[in-house]
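ok here's the first one, seq then struct tokens
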Amino acid sequence: MLIALTGGVGCGKSSSAALFGATGYRVRDADLIVREKVLTSPEVIAAVTDRWGKSLLADDGNLQRAKIAEIVFSDPTERRWLEQLVHPKVETHWRKDVAMAPECDWIVEIPLLFEARLEKGFDFVISVGASESVQIARLIARGMSEAQARQRIASQLPLAHKFKFSNAVIWNDGDIAFLKAQVLHLARTIALR
């Protein structure tokens, strides 16, 4: 079974994915693919520096993600440009992984699943949500300012939209034990389908 795991920024998608992984699912993280494979590819580095300049390069020749974030989260046109460049390459990577083990149950963590219109390619969609105050607190704990946290949240579709088009929702305002109980229940329920 191929399951998409999505939700809002700071809602606990990665924690949920790790818990699914502990139940036997194979997990692929789209953000990790972006960081480790897509943004490090010469083709993407060239496209980004052609558009925004060589000042985005670090001393090691890699792109400085923090500088890219400043650009794309302050300008929706630039964010769309980057997403159009990156999303197809990310999908190619995780689809290749899934194709190598089609007999396995997979969780693919894709924060912008609905924004990229990828939901139809999955057997089941799970959204992870949390209250905005919890999201903001988690993002501040990661080093963002409150303004940056609000900007990131506003750049995504509202959680209500994601919930409406998901097969299941995990609510992550509680502690890790509450999250784990929801994931285990959901994993058992999916296994019975």
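and now the second one, same deal
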Amino acid sequence: MKVDQVMTKDVFVVRPDDTVAGAVKKLAEYGISGAPVVDHEGRLVGIITEADILNALKVKYKRLQMVYPSLSLVSVSFVETFDNKEAVEAFNEISTSMVSELMTKDVVTIENGSELGQVIQLMMDKKVNRIPVMEDGELVGIVSRADVMKGLASSEIVLKV
């Protein structure tokens, strides 16, 4: 089975100068967890995923707190404490950032016509959930883990069971 038999051909993309809030809204609207980032000429320049966005949320932050009375006779002592921040407050801080600031720039891609086994191996080796499919340097599709599962489910082996 080849990648073009399972990939999504109508690829939703975002632009590097889109805001994170806009990208999040579109990801939620389309029910997808990541999208290729293409420039205005249509060249692949990155990928933005839920993981990129969640990693950027600073819901936990360090605070230095003075210890009183000081445990040290010579200087003032401090300890680090961690506080939690509301997720909405943390998202508000990054929502106006550009996609280009959070996206993964080193994108794992695969050539159209590749075997499904190569896609699966690449996903496992690189620990990615979706891979843009390229043909002659152009983005022609994207294959996700769900696409792979659908492809396997439609295979003759599964249909015989």
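notes on #2: DSSP finds seven helices and seven strands in the chain. The chain has two domains: 3-56+91-160, 60-87.
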